Amino acid sequence: MDSKRDKEQDADCDKVTAALLKSRTGEFDLESILFLKLRGLGAHDIGCIGECINLERLDLSGNNITNLAPLASLRHLSVLNLSANRISNLEPLRSCESVQSLNVAGNLLSSIESLHCLQSLRKLENIRFKDNTYNYTNPVCRNASYRTIILEMFPNIKVLDGERVVGRGSELYQLCKDIDDTIKAGLYKNGQLVEHPDCKPWVEDSYWEIKRSNNAIIEEAYKQFNDVLHECRLLNNRATHVISQTERSMSLKKQPKQYAI
Predict the structure, then answer these.
(1) How many CB atoms lie within 10 A of CB 195?
(2) C-alpha dihedral over 200, 201, 202, 205, to 10 degrees?
(3) Can you tell me the distance from the alpha carbon of 187 to that of 102, in angstroms, rounded to the nearest whole number?
(4) 87 — phi, psi (to 5°)?
(5) H or E element that contains 80
(6) How many CB atoms sit inside 10 A of residue 214's CB?
(7) Is residue 101 within 8 Å of residue 83, measured between CB atoms?
(8) Average pLDDT of the chain?
(9) Spatial distance between the Cα atoms of 50 and 48, rounded to a whole number of angstroms
(10) CA dist., res. 53 & res. 101, Å (int)
């Protein structure tokens, strides 16, 4: 019942409060929180998150956030997900000097100028302004030279919008993109989809079937994983029991002694 009530409260959250943060993390002190996931709460006021000064990973995706001012104090933040909100100003992130991965897809960023504040983030390697998987984007992505401009603005980034642009794997991404563009260009003629009735598959029908040997390996790995998971549950139960006994013992010691007169 309690967990159900908590979920209902979270789902109807309008402002992020200290009580909410403590209940979601189990921490008594906001400065002790390192990881925080507040996805899809419908919140528009991120309140006291700025007091979590040691926060390293933060997920605020799927809310109604417009003001990022409370995040300016998060100097240790390395991973930040702000996708699917209503953000049009990223200026408060200028001081988040440790950010390495930033997701702001699905917001209201309308101009290249609004992104200049991110150039001070020297450790930024992974940045996302659009996400085709969830159909998230920003108005700025409609700019015909968007990709070229972003790569010039952030010469140190390795991944842009989920595609590796430098380093190992970047050539494969570019090759796939070129092939995809070529295929799309060949599918249409004068705006009409061209049909190719004589097309044949590149591989045999059984090519994609998983061999039995692979199935056996997967089944064995799945079995081992379940065994480890079972042991973890047993250890958790034992730990809970020991903690309960310790708390009971300590509560008995703290009780005042009573003397009969």
Answers:
(1) 8
(2) -140
(3) 35
(4) -85, 130
(5) strand 79-81
(6) 10
(7) no
(8) 83
(9) 5
(10) 18
Q: What is the DSSP string of 146-169?
A: HHHHHHHH-TT-SEETTEE-SSTT
pLDDT digits (tens, 9 = 90+) for 137-187: 999 999 989 999 999 999 999 999 998 887 666 566 666 666 766 666 666
CA of residue 105 relative to chain centroid, distance = 11
**What is the spatial distance between Cα 67 and Cα 117, in angstroms, rounded to a whole number?**
15
Six-digit token string for 145: 């030279």
Map residue 201 onto helix, strand or coil.
coil
Q: Rounded to the nearest 5°, which phi and psi values hold at 9?
A: -65, -40
Which CA distances in Å does 43 have to 65, 133, 149, 236, 251?
7, 24, 33, 33, 39
The burial of 194, by beta-carbon neighbours within 10 Å (0-12 exposed, 13-18 middle, 19 or more buried), is given as: exposed
Q: How many residues make up the chain in this entry?
A: 261
Q: What count of other Cβ atoms lies within 10 Å of the Cβ of residue 250?
A: 9
Cα gap 132→136, rounded to integer Å: 6
Q: Which helix (H) or strand (E) holds 228?
A: helix 212-254
Strand, coil or helix: what is 59? strand
- Decide: 137 and 106 in contact? Cβ < 8 Å: yes
Q: pTM score, two decimals?
A: 0.65
Helix (H, G, I), strand (E, B), or coil: what is residue 45?
strand
pLDDT digits (tens, 9 = 90+) for 201-231: 766 777 666 555 555 667 777 777 887 888 8
CA distance readout (Å), 82 to 3, 85, 179, 259: 26, 7, 32, 62
